[in-house]
Amino acid sequence: MGEHHLVSTEWPRSTRMLLGPNTVSNSIGDIHRNKRKVFSKIFSHEALESYLPKIQLVIQDTLRAWSSHPEAINVYQEAQKLTFRMAIRVLLGFSIPEEDLGHLFEVYQQFVENVFSLPVDLPFSGYRRGIQARQILQKGLEKAIREKLQCTQGKDYSDALDLLIESSKEHGKEMTMQELKDGTLELIFAAYATTASASTSLIMQLLKHPAVLEKLREELRAHGILHSGGCPCEGTLRLDTLSGLRYLDCVIKEVMRLFTPISGGYRTVLQTFELDGFQIPKGWSVMYSIRDTHDTAPVFKDVNVFDPDRFSQARSEDKDGRFHYLPFGGGVRTCLGKHLAKLFLKVLAVELASTSRFELATRTFPRITLVPVLHPVDGLSVKFFGLDSNQNKILPETEAMLSATV
What residues bind heme, as annotated (predicted)? Predict the structure, then answer.
């Protein structure tokens, strides 16, 4: 809560340089406040409502592809591809050919892998690879932006880039091409790694806790999203429908409590202050830890247990105090895209419960690593199956033939 007067955000130098000087995350003071106002329109209720059908389609297409794959898939790798596609296709509205999109994803992975590298600009250093990836990305983004600005026909919704351009004009400052490139790169960065991490954690917990998955299916049946026979109802989801799914909300909250994608936030002390009897000197670097806060918060019972019902109306373990549960940070640096992230996870959970059966393809669950974001060390190997109208697995054709009685 002391941002701008007690502390100021502090990213590593390599991160500041690679993300670019025009980003919200690199801004401070009035510049930061103004940028948040411009970007906030992207995540308004109206904007989320317009993204929702597109997000659902991207997720449905992805799950169909996973189910048709004859082998197990690496969930974390595939979740990264899914969130990247969502950012490019839905958020930014770019019509990039599949082959070019695949190449852009590979370049983007190189960019992300080095965004927290040591800021040493030497040949073959991670920082140099990050700079090279940024240059290729910016070139590709500029091409896509220019093509998009020239072709406005056939649009059935306003994407985030449309809203960003519109919002900047409303606030009296038209964005330059460089600001647009930095803004789109930051949007992809924000939507990519953390959402892929949370998506993977969601799938892992549904695998570990089949009773939670079944309770989720019961809620979907009760709301007419899943027929009693098993098949999903036709039609797209709506925000008000998702808002009414209380247990789904509890599941997403519990995933984000136990498996927060990022560890915390870094700050520089602007003036000496006292915290719990300790003096924090001006100029020091400080970090608040989201994970340790969740692990030690006195309001949560059995903190290591995955228990979505802790967030139910009957228990509401998070209702006392503002700073016991903060998966998206807090204060003026609260994640701008938190409602979009939760929307994506809810749609993914609904589609998983409605249209998929999935099994762990290894004997045991993988251990978790926390760097650069929380994810399973082997990516989580899972076999997906399509479902028939009674929610029975549809086996691949060869398996079906082999198992048939002659």
Answer: 335
End-to-end CA distance of the chain: 71
2 assigned to some structural domain? no
Report the alpha-carbon distance of residue 166 to residue 214 in Å, rounded. Answer: 43
Query: Could you tell me if 188 and 160 are in contact, meaning their C-beta atoms sit under 8 angstroms apart?
Result: no
Residue 92 lies in a domain: yes
Distance CA 206, CA 210 (A): 6
- What Cα–Cα distance (Å) separates residue 14 from each residue in 111, 284, 404? 11, 19, 59
**Which residues, including other chains, have CB under 8 Å from residue 275's CB and lie 6 or more apart?**
none
Give a yes or no: residue 203 inside a domain: yes
Tokens encoding 162: 């449309």
Give the phi and the psi of residue 182 in degrees, each rounded to 5: -65, -40
Which amino acids are annotated as binding site, given as ranges? 335
pTM > 0.85: yes
Count: domains in the chain:
1
The answer to whether 63 and 355 are in contact (CB under 8 A) is yes
The alpha carbon dihedral of 80, 82, 83, 85 has a sign of positive
Encode pLDDT of 310-355 as tens digits: 999 999 999 888 899 999 999 999 999 999 999 999 999 999 999 9
Within a domain: 287: yes
Say if residues 197 and 375 touch (Cβ distance below 8 Å): yes
Give dist(CA 386, CA 395) in Å, integer.
8
What pLDDT, in 10s, does the model give residues 70-110? 999 999 999 999 999 999 999 999 989 999 999 999 999 99
Enclosing domain of residue 330: 7-403
Binding residue ranges for heme: 335
- Residue 325: name the closest of 236, 395, 253 by CA: 253
H-state helical runs in 69-159: 75-85, 98-113, 126-150
Q: Which helix (H) or strand (E) holds 248?
A: helix 246-258
Helices (H), 126-245: 126-150, 160-170, 177-208, 210-222, 239-243
